[in-house]
Write a sequence for this structure.
């Protein structure tokens, strides 16, 4: 049974607002908590992936595991929004987080038993869990904040989340500092990742249902308390004919596509093991800076929300073009044969390589900056399309599903030894195509103010029903 309440501007009024910064059911605290969950789980996973090959000499095992991961992620990313609406955030997030621990454990196992099946199965299960986690995270991050501060909250989340990559990058750097000639990371590195992931899994139990999260103006983040399988199936199916989602498709496909190239064929190809860990500290640190920068542009640069959106897209387009040009210039100096066949590339070390290390390091840092700005921009656009948690969970699920399908293809492209230059050009083209389509989406669908007629609509797919139940801030 679907249960709803009376709404104003899409949300149920709760009476007197409570403006306490420390209120547990405030959007700010809940966004911080989901940021900490992602700090511990996908943040550590990103650090692990960023080493190239998951810290293993043989990149094929992790490429195959990631293909399985992103294939199941594509399916459960799309379904994840509906699952989140049915079972709520705690069970959704807890189930998702637990699969990260298993994946890190499978690489620890592979350190001693060079058999791929366990790693590939763990990767497939992680795809299921990641689909659930990111659908829930996206709904929380895009729907809980007030409309005029979505960019700020997205940048706050992105900064906390990517601090996980920074700390996670320090783990292999410290644990393998004196192993300059090592081909794969030691056991302690994987154990360290598993400890953080376990903490994140427990933290997921602190996330409240959106109907219990109260904004400072006294409204809650959704009027819907319970959903059902039939309603979610119909609403998810509608997304594939939704022009808003079709315009987002290229950005979604490309937004994780470049990870394979950057992790394996830049960081993994040009630097030794300990330096890869150090590079990841700065790669994810750059993401913190990039998310804050684009969040400020998209929340504070102009008075009109539509103008701010177009300004943000323009900034990312110009900066992204410059960074990909830099990548093109560097990529002209080496290819797959130089790295994997002839092994003529001398791996760079942050201490011993001197000035030769500087250029590739700045390039990799810039890739991290662009990643955060690009994804924060897309999340802002999605968040500007609606305010209700239920509909945004579906939008974000669609985004993450398409994103993961693209990533699955990217990992297999690398496994099949596609030339590095070709991979770079495809990545550049995908991000470039995205900018005018996102601009069109902002122009056509993003509104500066909610019209009175729109307040009478229920975007979640449910009829409004009167309900006398009052909700008091916790």
């Amino acid at each position: 049974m679907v249960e709803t309440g009376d709404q104003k501007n899409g949300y149920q009024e709760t009476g007197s607002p409570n403006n306490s910064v420390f209120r547990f059911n405030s959007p700010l605290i809940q966004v911080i908590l989901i940021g900490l969950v992602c700090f511990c789980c996908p943040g550590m996973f990103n650090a692990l992936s960023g080493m190239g090959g998951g810290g293993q000499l043989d990149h094929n095992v992790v490429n195959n595991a990631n293909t399985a991961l992103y294939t199941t992620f594509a399916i459960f990313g799309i379904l994840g929004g509906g699952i989140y609406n049915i079972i709520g955030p705690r069970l959704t997030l807890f189930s998702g987080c637990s699969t990260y621990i298993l994946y890190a454990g499978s690489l620890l196992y592979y350190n001693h038993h060079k058999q791929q099946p366990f790693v590939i199965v763990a990767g497939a299960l992680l795809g299921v869990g990641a689909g659930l986690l990111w659908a829930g995270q996206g709904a929380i991050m895009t729907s809980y904040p007030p409309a005029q501060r979505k960019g700020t909250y997205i940048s706050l989340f992105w900064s906390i989340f990517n601090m996980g990559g920074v700390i996670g990058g320090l783990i292999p750097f410290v644990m393998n500092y004196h192993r300059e000639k090592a081909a794969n990371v030691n056991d302690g590195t994987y154990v360290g990742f598993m400890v953080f992931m376990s903490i994140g899994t427990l933290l997921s139990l602190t996330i409240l249902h959106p109907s219990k999260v109260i904004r400072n103006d006294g409204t809650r983040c959704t009027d819907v308390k319970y959903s059902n399988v039939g309603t979610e199936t119909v609403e998810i199916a509608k997304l594939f004919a939704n022009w808003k989602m079709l315009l987002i498709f290229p950005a979604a496909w490309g937004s994780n596509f470049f990870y394979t190239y950057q992790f394996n064929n830049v960081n993994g190809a040009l630097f030794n093991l300990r330096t890869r860990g150090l590079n990841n500290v700065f790669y994810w640190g750059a993401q913190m800076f990039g998310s804050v920068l684009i969040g400020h542009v998209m929340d504070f640069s102009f008075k009109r929300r539509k103008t701010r959106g177009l300004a943000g897209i323009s900034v990312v387009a110009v900066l992204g073009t410059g960074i990909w040009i830099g990548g093109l210039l560097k990529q002209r100096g080496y290819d797959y044969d130089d790295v994997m066949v002839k092994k003529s590339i001398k791996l760079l070390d942050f201490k011993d390589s001197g000035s030769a290390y500087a250029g590739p390091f700045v390039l990799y840092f810039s890739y991290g900056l662009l990643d955060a700005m690009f994804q924060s921009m897309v999340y802002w656009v999605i968040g500007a399309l609606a305010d209700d948690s239920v509909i945004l969970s579906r939008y974000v699920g669609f985004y993450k599903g398409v994103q993961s399908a693209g990533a699955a293809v990217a990992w297999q492209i690398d496994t099949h030894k596609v030339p590095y230059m070709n991979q770079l050009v495809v990545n550049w083209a995908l991000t470039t195509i995205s900018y005018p389509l996102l601009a069109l989406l902002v122009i056509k669908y993003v509104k500066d103010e909610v019209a009175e007629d729109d307040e009478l609509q229920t975007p979640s797919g449910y009829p409004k029903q009167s309900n006398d139940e009052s909700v008091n801030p916790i």
